[in-house]
From TrEMBL:
It comes from the Bacteria. This is Threonine dehydrogenase. The chain crosses the membrane at residues 12-30, 660-682. The lineage of its organism: Bacteria, Pseudomonadati, Pseudomonadota, Alphaproteobacteria, Rhodobacterales. It comes from Litoreibacter arenae DSM 19593. Gene3D superfamilies: 3.40.50.880.
């Protein structure tokens, strides 16, 4: 039963009345009135009567206390015998807590989404937000202590306890990739920093050196003996452009907790620093400047332009000494440094006696060893002085028939070209839409008739004659464009066309960029989902064979989604390196990290929870020493000791009924005020 005030007037009005009463009392004292000591109590009685003191009686129903138990069920809790330790502790505590008449809220916490790790504090915060704080008697965490969201811990008013799974003898070895770039320039050395680290109670007989194997793109691994506990500097040069998948693996010991953190997968995109191009021009024409402008507009292109402005047969009497300042380094370009170029373009060039057969033979060898040549043929290609009549003709994909067709035509993508990555979907870059199968780009006005010898014709011209033919020669590649009017697209003739896109694709195909390979098997990962793409010039493909990180093999059918592209979407069951194979094409892809966040630190420890536990006077106990007993402790007292943990009773209740009655009858207040007032009057009247 409590005394409360239910004023008959607002409190501000009572405060004003009290101030006036005090002023009158002071005046009475100052004037020397003999009854001031009776008048002041009379006015005070009236003020108390207006404040209306009452007795409040509540009927309360007690509420049971609530204990929250958060159970860690993440991947690291499945190591060793931690699952059985957890199960025994949960069963024992559940029985003990419920037998005391308390309510138990059990929260099971699995692995976080997207390799977020163990989110114990997030689960605890979400649970406590749904419960009244006044009823929480305590919180118990059953975990290995390796949580990843400690910053989200809620403010707790009751003890927090941590029961640790694991053993004192646990130890583990892990591989750490300390730095790995996402991109690297081809032919330039980069350095990766690795570290092999031992954690926990490492046995004395474990050597201080470990066996490290390194594999690139799933190829055969190389093994090295390296020290543990030291940073290892690994110099590396990427073997090819595009995604390079590097897999590192440390040999596991049978006594360590897990080998899931003994591997690491690094994906580095190989890019070219600059593209070195040699442009060899013949007779000047309207398209020569277009080629030069296109190549010079790209800051990543280093261009060397070899052109003949004054042919040998021209005789105008000008002394040779006045025609040039220095001799052009022809021999250096075409013999000594030809291998330094990524691409050589012949634009309407013909044999003039300036470049001897030895130079053309050097270019042929350059292609066979991995170089790239693009021939933009003009009328000279059909003449007797054609470069086809040089040693370079031995690698040409088509031979000229000596006919030059001077008429307008619209370049078309062949049936094969619709599946070839160089011309696939090229019509999408046309300035106008395709109508009746005719791409919406401008016409060309001349074509050199050629007879295909080998390679792949991806574009056709007049009456489906070969216009663009691609071929592989040895380790290199060659392309023949049977027209010198591609520049009309760049000039915007009849709307123009995608000359820049075509040139870019041609150059990248010749540079063997993986994205433009005709036959390729690739995969892209998004979370645990991988999208597999099989690119081919064939009309059909078989099923793709997928080897999971645990060695299981599954086959998945591929569906044609566009000409030359067959795809499939597969959900990976676990994180790690997957190997893909279809026919003679193989690829590898990593889903998630090879060592998930759960396995970065596997040794049980309460270090990350010490601050939270100490703030609530809780305790951190190891389940290896036994399951602690429960005790009831007062609020503000230590809630943990040897072999026991404490819960704080909250004595919460709910009020079911409230009764309010006046503390004193109003008539009694009135009578008392009258008696005091009359007494003051009589006192002052006798005086």
């Amino acid at each position: 039963m409590d005394v409360i005030f239910d004023p008959l007037l607002p409190w501000p009005a009572l405060y004003v009345a009290a101030a006036i009463t005090a002023v009158f009392a002071i005046l009475a004292i100052w004037r020397g009135l003999g009854g001031w000591w009776l008048r002041a109590p009379a006015m005070a009685v009236l003020l108390v009567a207006l404040a209306n003191p009452s007795l409040q009686d509540e009927e309360r129903d007690p509420l049971s206390d609530i204990v929250v138990m958060v159970v860690d069920e993440s991947a690291s809790q499945r190591l060793s015998d931690r699952e059985s330790q957890t199960a025994q502790a949960v069963d024992a505590l559940t029985t003990d807590i419920t037998s005391r008449g308390m309510e138990l809220r059990t929260v099971n916490v699995p692995d976080g989404q997207g390799d977020a790790g163990t989110e114990l504090m997030t689960a605890l915060s979400d649970t406590l937000s749904e419960e009244p704080k006044s009823r929480i008697a305590g919180t118990i965490l059953v975990t290995d202590g390796q949580l990843h969201d400690a910053q989200r811990a809620p403010v707790l008013e009751a003890p927090l306890h941590t029961l640790l799974t694991g053993r004192d003898t646990d130890w583990d070895r892990r591989l750490i990739v300390k730095n790995a770039p996402a991109f690297a320039i081809l032919d330039e050395e980069i350095t990766l920093t690795l570290r092999i680290e031992d954690q926990g109670a490492v046995p004395r007989d474990i050597p201080a050196r470990a066996s490290l194997s390194i594999a690139i793109d799933g190829e055969e691994a190389q093994t090295f003996q390296v020290p543990t506990g030291e940073d290892l500097q690994l110099p590396l040069t990427l073997p090819h452009g595009g995604i390079n998948v590097l897999q590192f693996n440390v040999a596991a010991d049978e006594t360590e907790l897990t080998d899931r953190n003994n591997s690491a997968v690094v994906q580095i995109n190989g890019v070219r620093d600059r593209l070195r191009v040699l442009l060899v021009s013949g007779e000047p024409h309207a398209g020569e400047r277009t080629w030069r402008n296109l190549l010079k507009s790209d800051a990543a292109v280093d261009l060397v332009h070899f052109t003949i402005l004054r042919p040998p047969e021209k005789q105008d009497g000008v002394p040779v000494s006045e025609l040039s300042l220095i001799a052009f380094p022809t021999r250096e370009l075409f013999l000594e440094k030809v291998d330094e170029f990524d691409l050589i373009i012949f634009d309407r060039y013909k044999r003039r006696g300036i470049l001897p057969a030895l130079y053309f033979d050097s270019i042929r060898q350059y292609v066979e060893k991995g170089g790239a040549v693009l021939v933009a043929a003009g009328p000279d290609f059909a003449s007797a002085d054609s470069i086809y009549r040089s040693p370079l003709g031995g690698i040409m994909p088509a031979e000229p028939t000596a006919r030059v067709l001077d008429q307008g035509f619209t370049p078309l993508i062949s049936e094969l070209g619709a599946r070839h990555p160089v011309t696939e979907g090229l019509e999408k870059f046309a300035p106008n839409p395709t109508v009746d199968g005719i791409p919406g780009w401008g016409r060309w006005m001349r074509q050199i008739e050629v007879s295909p010898l080998q390679g792949q014709t991806v574009m056709t011209g007049i009456e489906e004659r070969p216009l663009l033919t691609l071929d592989r020669v040895g380790e290199g590649r060659i392309a023949l464009m049977a027209s010198d009017h591609a520049w009309l697209w760049h000039r915007g003739f009849e709307g123009g066309g995608p000359q820049l896109e075509l040139l870019r694709r041609l150059a990248h195909w010749m540079m063997k960029e993986p994205d433009l390979e005709e036959e390729a098997l690739t995969a892209v990962a998004e979370g645990q989902t991988m999208t597999i793409t099989r690119r081919t010039l064939a009309l059909e493909v078989g099923e793709v064979e997928i080897t999971a990180p645990d060695g299981t093999v599954t086959t998945v059918p591929l569906e044609e989604t566009s000409p030359g592209r067959f795809t499939a979407t597969v959900e990976g069951q676990e994180q790690g390196l997957y190997r893909l194979k279809e026919g003679d094409q193989e690829s590898v892809i990593a889903l998630g990290p090879a060592a998930p966040r759960e396995f970065i630190e596997t040794i049980a420890s309460g270090a990350k929870l010490e601050g939270l536990v100490d703030a609530t006077r809780g305790g951190i106990m190891s389940l290896e020493d036994g399951i602690p007993n429960l005790r009831m402790v007062g609020e503000g007292r230590n809630a943990a000791g040897r072999g026991w943990i404490g819960l704080t009773p909250r004595n919460a209740y709910v009020t079911t009924n409230v009764t309010v009655i006046p503390l004193v009858s109003p008539w009694l207040f009135l009578l008392l005020a009258m008696v005091l007032s009359v007494g003051a009057w009589l006192r002052e009247g006798r005086r």
